[in-house]
Amino acid sequence: MPLSLWMSLAAICAMGAMSPGPSLALVLRHTLGGGRSSGVVAAIAHALGVGLYALLTVWGLGEVIERHPSAFRVITIGGALYLAWLGIKALRAGRGGALGARPTAASHRVAAREGLLVALGNPKLILFFVALLSQFVSPEMSSIERAIIVLTAMLIDGGWYVIVALGLSHSRVLPWLQARAHWINRISGVLLLGLALRVLAG
């Protein structure tokens, strides 16, 4: 995979991971309630769930593209519409949302279970990955290239939420984020709408 193509993939994965939502709320709750280690455990477990969805999507997409190109186009359009809906939702979120999550006290086992379930229990991730990975997957891709895509999605997701958990260990970080939540939501919304347009035009 060319470096420029991988950098585009990494940038889009990072944008998806940074978008406020239930995953961010989960890591916030466990970090604020159980400390740094609980937040890190939740982040890693969430990344494993994301990696599984990415794995299923990458191998499934190649087969769909090869055997049913028209069906793949329909799936891609559906994914693009979902990205657009996420963007509109983020633009309308204002200052509220995941950044206002309440803390919860829980063990590492609970943090791991909830981190995994939030990822696996969110079938919308499949739509996100279909829209995202359709830009990078082709039937002739090697297994190594597919593995790179899956690992990129998983490591960026886990890395971002680990950074969130570590950052929230400092008491000044969360108030700073909450004060700028409306800008975070607006930027995420614009980027998601732009990605949706790119997928539709692709």
TrEMBL record:
<keyword id="KW-0812">Transmembrane</keyword>
<protein>
    <submittedName>
        <fullName>LysE family translocator</fullName>
    </submittedName>
</protein>
<feature type="transmembrane region" description="Helical">
    <location>
        <begin position="41"/>
        <end position="59"/>
    </location>
</feature>
<feature type="transmembrane region" description="Helical">
    <location>
        <begin position="116"/>
        <end position="136"/>
    </location>
</feature>
<dbReference type="Pfam" id="PF01810">
    <property type="entry name" value="LysE"/>
</dbReference>
<keyword id="KW-1003">Cell membrane</keyword>
<feature type="transmembrane region" description="Helical">
    <location>
        <begin position="183"/>
        <end position="201"/>
    </location>
</feature>
<dbReference type="InterPro" id="IPR001123">
    <property type="entry name" value="LeuE-type"/>
</dbReference>
<dbReference type="GO" id="GO:0005886">
    <property type="term" value="C:plasma membrane"/>
</dbReference>
<feature type="transmembrane region" description="Helical">
    <location>
        <begin position="148"/>
        <end position="171"/>
    </location>
</feature>
<keyword id="KW-1133">Transmembrane helix</keyword>
<dbReference type="GO" id="GO:0015171">
    <property type="term" value="F:amino acid transmembrane transporter activity"/>
</dbReference>
<keyword id="KW-0472">Membrane</keyword>
<feature type="transmembrane region" description="Helical">
    <location>
        <begin position="71"/>
        <end position="88"/>
    </location>
</feature>
